[in-house]
Amino acid sequence: MEKIKRFIDIQIPVTTCTLRCHYCYITQHRLFSASVPKLKYSAEQIGKALSKERLGGICHFNICGNGETLLPDEMTDIIRAILEQGHYVMIVNNGTVTRRFQEMMTQYPEELKKRLGFKFSFHFLELKKRNLMDLFFKNIDLVRKNGCSFSLELTPSDELIPYIGDVKEECINRLGALCHVTVARDENVEDFVILSKLSREEYIKIWGQFNSPLFDFKIKIFNEKRQEFCYTGLWGGILDLGTGILRACDRTFLAQNILDDPIKPINFRPIGKCNKAHCHNGHAWLGLGMIPELQTPSYADMRDRIDDKGNHWLRPEMREFLSQKLADGNDLLDEKRKVQIKRRAIVNNSVWNLRHRTAKIVSKFRNK
Ligand code: SF4
Asked: Alpha carbon of 80 to those of 44, 88, 328: distances in Å?
């Protein structure tokens, strides 16, 4: 098995969606009525820009839209172009865009499907309300039968608590295992807090009953400010597929366009010091080892389940690849270099925070 070189989180600039979950940022801000965007870069250009040679090795890509990831027509070709470079890809989606699953499952060869996985977000109440439950599980079945990996993830909400029994029953009957559970955050609050009226203890008691390693880890690190040296920027980053901009993480100046010129070398520079209140998607970033000294479950453990027939949700190739840590495929920096980078990051972060606060004040006054 090839060593994992980088983790890249791809953002798709789509805000529209097939569902209207009440806890979703898109619904709260009524962004779902926007039209599906036409993506600027072709699949061919994206594939070329993300070649194994340019990125230095085989990487894991997470692909996610603000709205429904699989709505843009170009997605089938874009995902294929990335898989064809030899990378592993996981698509975050709501399980309702049937035509896209059908395209991928009929057009992709086996070789690509075994490196492809789908993270199905289980929006139980919306699926029930819109009578989409059968279609949702049929789509999971389709990708599973075609040799792809999958994971099922529930977003907890206070409104869902009376239906927990039904959620469990649906998971066991349809998939032979309970879904994973994430931690919902309130995106209207600057540093994100848990989106719930429950106390932290009650929240853990209620949602911990799903025995989800994903939930256990996310809740453990929620609100834990990261002080260690973080290698993101060097070992990965966030790529906006609309603008072509690669950033080390949120809240940083470390950014460059990597799609305009697909052969120009990429300047991978570590962020060093985290500028966020906490690593809210740490199950992926930290699970894959962006902070090597931090002991975490593997990312595979936070995505996989074994069903009542003994089958894994992740197929063997994906499971093995995502069980690695980024330090397996990369060299560590020496302490002297880390101190230099951290010092520079403290200055950069202060400037970023000042500009961010100023921009917020200006926009508040403009909107008055
Ligand atoms: S620890 Fe901070 S900088 Fe590193 S990946 Fe997480 S949020 Fe980003």
From this structure: 10, 11, 26
Can you tell me the distance from the alpha carbon of 180 to that of 66, in angstroms, rounded to the nearest whole number? Answer: 20
In a domain, residue 266? The reply is yes
Number of domains in the chain: 1
pLDDT of amino acid 29:
66
The segments of the chain whose pLDDT lies below 50 read: none
Q: Which protein residue's CA is at the shortest distance from atom 2 of ligand 1?
A: 274
Q: How far is the CA of 273 from the centre of ligand 1 (A)?
A: 8
In angstroms, rounded to a whole number, what is the distance separating the alpha carbons of residues 216 and 183?
9
pTM above 0.90, yes or no: yes
Residue 49's domain spans which residues?
7-328
C-beta of 226 in contact with ligand 1 (< 6 A) = yes
pLDDT in tens, 328-353: 999 999 999 999 999 999 998 998 89
Ligand 1, atom 5, residue with closest C-alpha: 285
CATH code of 196's domain: 3.20.20
